[in-house]
Description:
Number of strands of chain B: 10
CATH topology of the largest domain in chain B: Rossmann fold
Largest sheet of chain B: 6 strands, mixed
Shape of chain B: globular
Number of domains of chain C: 1
Radius of gyration of chain C: 19 Å
Number of strands of chain C: 0
CATH architecture of the largest domain in chain B: 3-Layer(aba) Sandwich
Oligomer: heterotrimer
Distance between the termini of chain C: 18 Å
Number of domains of chain B: 2
Mean pLDDT of chain B: 83
Strand content of chain B: 15-25%
Structural class of chain B: alpha/beta
Amino acid sequence: MNFAFFEVFDIYLLEAVVNGILLGGVLALMALGLNLIFGVIDVVWICYAELIMIGMYGLYYAFAVYGLPMWIAAPMCIALVAVLGLMLHYIVIRPLLDAAPINQLLATGGVLFFLQSFATVAFGIDFRNLGIRLPVLAIGEMHFSYARLLAFLAALAGMVTIYLFMTRTYIGTAIRAIAQDRQIMVLMGVDSRRLYLVTSALGGALAGLAACLLVLQYDVHPFVGLSFGPITFMIVVLGGLGNFIGGFVASFVFAEIISLGGLYSDLEWGYVLAFAFFILMMFARPQGLLTRRS
Amino acid sequence: MLLLKGLVKRFGGFAAVNNVSFEVERGEILGLIGPNGSGKSTIFNVLSGTYRPTAGSILFDGHEIAGLAPHQIINRGIGRTFQIPRPFRRLSVFDNVALAGYYGQGRHSRAKAQASAERALAVVGLSVDARAEVGGLGAAGLKKLELAKALATEPKLLLADESLGGLDEQEMSRAAEMLRRIRDEMGITIIWVEHIMGVLMRVVDRVIVLDHGEKIAEGSPGAVANNPKVIEVYLGTQAQAVQQELATASHAEGAPS
Amino acid sequence: MTVRKLIIAATALALIALPFVYRQPYHLHVLVLILIWSFAYTSWSIMGRFGLVSLGHGGFMGVGAYVTALLWNHLGVSPWIGIPLALLAAGLLAVVVGYPCFRFRIIGHYFALVTLALSGIVLQVITATRDHTGGSLGYTPERTKGSVLVAVQFVDKETWYLIALLVWALGLLIWYRVDASMLRHAMEAISEDEDAAAAAGVNVTAEKLKITVLSAMMTAFAGALYCQYQMFISPDTVSGISVSLQMVFAAVVGGIYVALGPTVGAVITILLAEALRIGFGTAAVGWDNLIYGVLLVCFIVLLPQGILGSLLERSSGAAK
Lengths: 294, 257, 320
């Protein structure tokens, strides 16, 4: 009897761990987007989660309301949020590039307000669901939703694409160079404005991809950004703002904490645990968080 | 009053201060000289608590202070000026000094802090423009402000960091005289770091010479100025100027300083 | 100076006498809201004016509101004791989050994000403990059958108006006291050059913590008061990112460097919300935040000093 219980315990634990990895994939995607924007433009988009929320609505309307097939709806959604990212940079960020960082944060905070309210007014506060029921993969006693698996793989694909873009194309290399040293820009003869726009579009595209993957698994409503926003910020802060590797690692760490926390209790306690971990990590890392820019 | 034993400060693999030991007597003015990169400022930063020493001990009035936080060291009576003045431009000149006086003395009494501030400003010669803004001060004025801030903390030991930088001949003499007066009238022991040596040598009681993080000479200004190692380190020119200064000084006073 | 004192005295008398002369309950209600939120916004700007911009004050407000309500409902503890306990909890939270931030020099961006996460997490805690707190559906303190005074559940608007007025005045008093204190000078020095401040003898971590704890406790008090007045709280009205941002928005719009700035911000935001509610009814849900969002962006881009701050600067010619 004891052994059997132990076995079951193990299985659920393993399931939670794997689910954590799957969740980590999408979190890493979001962290990448934030880090990209910060690393290059030195601005944090507080409204990043809200951009994703709009993307989720975009896919919902395209797929569930207007009946477009997924292979059209998803790229449309990604493009939509990429454009939103462009607009955000052009209208809000660009005039504030030289302003105090806190003003930049507050401005994107204003956009957060705006997007949440816009969604409330335009779409209503009801929870919307794509209505897709993807099958569940059963391995032994463990169950994994195909939606999650798909999300993980797509997130990985997205990150690999970005990696290739950053290492194989001229623009990507320019972006990496600027992320390391802003002054180089001028010397390289690269147009910083164009680069910022490309980066903003990329950041938006990543958000768009995350939106597609999230809406497969979760309902969308105007305030859904509040569910994963704080987590994403904790991830990038702990991993080091602008530090891509750090953000990647931190994503999985946090995902595991949330998943395991959710195993033993409600999902929200997983978040609380993650925050407690976050605070503890701040205490435990006296050398300061891994940053390239302070 | 102050005893450094085997002080070491490493940054990564580079030893900015390598096994330096010396003693500071109460009431003396000690000069700490050496070419750029010799470790003078690093020693000051360690003494003031900005850096933690890698190894070694620092005894102040018999108590170990290595590793304490800056505000704790200031509260114990070690004040410090900075090579490049860093005034608080949002506060008035007086408030700058009063702030240092208040926090430097351990946050006991605002009235006392203001009294110390007024006295400090008087000593350095800034009383006239006390309520003025920092922006109106020139290079000499900013240096005086730095000094006033340090004095307002009522220190027993003052670390004067390159007080002469950016000043002309006349101002330099006056600054040196001010340090001497601070020791004579206020009874404050002074360690003076400088790399413009001539004026310093006339005022200090003793000199310690550093090079590449190590102590290479110690003694009276006359002895140190004639030390072949010191001369070699300074490539001759400064040493000549120093010897000339000492010669003029001993002719004028009839005794070596 | 005496003319100024006369004006202040006259205004104070007028404000105090108001509810006895003018008894329109709805208008008094709006005034009470304005006063309570002014106090909350003032609490935020006590920190914000020194560059310690927190995007998480909703967390403190939520703690203030929920701790008071929970202690009353579950343990029968009168708010006279419950509120101090709530303030203590908020202060503790401020220390737990603030200490590592300040000790390890987490400032600017990082600090704002940490506080943002804080308010998000407080909201999650409230939702997670839904069995006790009602979660997103909200929570109601139980109506007392006994003494209204012990339960701090006054029914008439006039009493609440006077209480809110007193609290608001208290907030201004605290603001002025901080303004005249050495703590203020220390914080100004710290916000300009933290290293130099440390070199001048300032215990940077301690001073930052002091102002943060003060701000957190005041904000929690606003939350507790709001709870007792409205007799209904929910996670998104008293905690979370929206509330946090709202606080920042109102303070920034009104001017964070001036004592009455946050009050001006409160007047603007609350009147705007009420006007929209009256004008559009339920269709107005979300429109007020929409406009806030646009206004906030505009203000940040065009008027970094806030309304009151800019006006004062232009009229007196001195930046203060």
